[in-house]
Amino acid sequence: MSAAPRNRRLVLAERPSGMVDEKTVRLEDGPAPDPGPAEALVRVRYLSIDPTIRTWMNDAPGYLPAIAIGDVVRGGGIAEVVKSGNDRYREGDLVFGMTGWQDFAVVDEAAGAMQVLPAGIDPLAALSVLGVTGMTAYFGLLDVGRLVERDTVVVSGAAGATGSVVGQIAKIKGAGRVVGIAGTAEKCAWLVDELGFDGAVNYRTDNVGGKLRELCPKGIDLYFDNVGGEILDTCLGQLALRGRVVLCGAISTYNEAGPVPGPGNYRNLIVVRGRMEGFLILDYLDRFPEAQASMFGWLAEGKILHSEHVVEGLESAPDALNLLFTGGNTGKVIVKVDEP
Amino acid sequence: MSAAPRNRRLVLAERPSGMVDEKTVRLEDGPAPDPGPAEALVRVRYLSIDPTIRTWMNDAPGYLPAIAIGDVVRGGGIAEVVKSGNDRYREGDLVFGMTGWQDFAVVDEAAGAMQVLPAGIDPLAALSVLGVTGMTAYFGLLDVGRLVERDTVVVSGAAGATGSVVGQIAKIKGAGRVVGIAGTAEKCAWLVDELGFDGAVNYRTDNVGGKLRELCPKGIDLYFDNVGGEILDTCLGQLALRGRVVLCGAISTYNEAGPVPGPGNYRNLIVVRGRMEGFLILDYLDRFPEAQASMFGWLAEGKILHSEHVVEGLESAPDALNLLFTGGNTGKVIVKVDEP
Hints:
2 copies of one chain form a homodimer.
Chain A: E1 6-12, E2 25-31, E3 40-49, H1 51-56, E4 77-84, E5 94-97, E6 104-107, E7 115-116, H2 123-127, H3 132-144, E8 152-156, H4 161-172, E9 177-182, H5 185-194, E10 199-202, H6 208-215, E11 220-225, H7 229-237, E12 239-247, H8 268-271, E13 275-278, H9 288-300, E14 308-312, H10 317-326, E15 332-336
Parallel strand pairs in A: 8-9, 8-11, 9-10, 11-12, 12-13, 14-15
Antiparallel strand pairs in A: 1-2, 3-4, 3-6, 3-15, 4-5, 5-7
C-alpha cells in the first residue's frame, strides 16, 4: 500500500483585520485524508475566489458560520475524483462544490456537497458565468431587481465576475441604459468597448456623483450593489421613482473591523418609494437550470463575454483573495491548483 | 359690503435648523382673501400636525417642493365653508385638505384639493385614524410590509399617531407579537395596557438592543420605522430571515442640517435576504375607501383606540410641530384654530 499523497491545507490561523496574509492564513502540510467506504477522494484543481470568503473569516454572525480558527479556509472549487467507493463519482470525473483551500478533499455522499460537472463544460466557465457567479448576476438582476425594459441600470464592481455579467444581461433584457462603476480606465474601456455597456465611471478618478448624474439624467431605476460604502450612498441619492437597490455584496466594507458607516441617503427610499433588498444565491439553487439554459444560449450566440483572472498555485490563494479588494482583477478570480 | 375678516397666516420666514421658532415661522396679519366666482372661502378649524411638514421647510429635494420663504406653511387641516360660489361646497360644510397654517383659505375647484367631510364623522378622527395618519399605518403595514400571521412586529414612534395604529392593526391581523418603542414610561404603559401591545421599549431608559432581543427572541419579521437613526440600525441588526423594514419616516433626523449617518447594519439585509422599502401615502389615495371601511368596522367594534393631542390656537402650531420632535405628544397632534 503506497503512502498517502501530500496534502497542503490553507488554514485560518487567526482572524484577519484588513487583508489576509501568512499570519492569518497559514499553509500546513500533511497526508491526504483517507476516504471511507462510500466516499470519494478528490484532488482540487481550481478554486473559486469570492469576496464572501473574506466575510466568513470574521467572527461575526452571517448566513454561514464563521470559519473556525484552525480549519481549512472554506471556498468553492472544482476537483477531480482520484479514488471512489461511491457510484456517483467515478475516477476522472470533475466535480464542483465546497472543496476548501487544500489539495485533497473527501466527498461525503450524505452531505451531497459535490456535483459532477457535465461533459463539455469548460471548468473556468463553470466557476464563473455558468456557476454561482453568473447565477448571482442573473437572479439578482431579474428576480430581486425585477429589471424592466428601458430601465437605467447601474452596477458597481462592474469589471468583476458578477458585475460584468449583470451589465450584459441587462442589455440583453432591454435595459435602456447600463452604466458600470469600476476602478481603472482599462476596466472602464473594457466595459464599454467589449461588453457593450453604455457608459462607465472610474470611481478612483471621476466625481462619481457628478458622472452618474450626467450618464443617468433621469435617475437610476436599478442599482446592483457589489461594493457598499460611499458608492451605495451616492446611488441611493440618485434613485428614480420606484428605484430598486439590489444588495449583492459590500466588498468595500469586508476588510473593516467593527461597525461600518451606513448610507445616510437611505431616506431617499421614502421620497422615491424605493426598495433595497438583499439576497443570497443559496436560495436559488433549485432554479439554476432555468438560468443556465439562458446563459448557455447567450454564450453560444456570443451575447455574453466572460473573463477569468487565473492565479497559479494553491499557496497564492490568499493573495488572490486580496486582489478582489485592491481591484487587481478583471472578471472572475480563479486559483489554478498546481500539484505539489 | 363689510370689510374682509382678519386673516392670520403663519409664514416661513427663514429655513429652520433644528426646532422651529418665531424667527423661522412668523405670524403675519392681513385681510382674508376674496374668492373668485367659482371658488369658496373656508375658515380653518383644525390643523393636522405631521412630521413631514418639518421636511418641507428644508431646502432639499423631496416628494413635494420645499415651502418657499414667505409662503404660508403647508399643512393639512379641516375647515368650514363660509362663502361659496361653487356647487360642490355649501356654507357650513366641513372640508378637509391642504388648508395651510392660516385662518382662511380659498378653495379652487380646479385644484380639487378639498373634500367635503361626510356627515357624522368626528373631525378629530378624520384627521387621525380615519385620515392620512390611519391610512399610512394601514397601507404601510399591510401593503408595503406585507404582514403575515404570527409575524413579530416592531414599531417605533409607537405612541405617535401612526405608530399606535400600526400596532393595533398588526394585532387585529394576527401578528404573533407586537412591540412598540416609545420615549416615556407612561407611553409604554399606554401601549401595553390600553392598546394591547405585547411589549414596549423605552428608548430613553432601556438598552434598546438588549430589550428588543429579549422581547423578540426569534428576531424581527417586520419593523415599521418612523424614526430612523440608531433605532433603525438596531432593528436592521435584529431582522429575522426575510425580514422587512417599512420606511415611513425618519423623525430623529428631520431637524438635522446636512447629511445624517446611515444604518451600518443595512448589510444584514443580505444575510437575512431582507427588504427595506419606503412609501408615501399619496400613492394610495384611490385605495383609501377600502382601508376606511376596515377602520370604521374596527372602531365600531372597539378594536382600535385612538388618541388626539389637541393644542389650542393657530399661533401654537409651531410649538405643536416641535412636540413631535420632543415626544411631548401621545397620539395625533392637532391644532384647534380659535377665531382671532
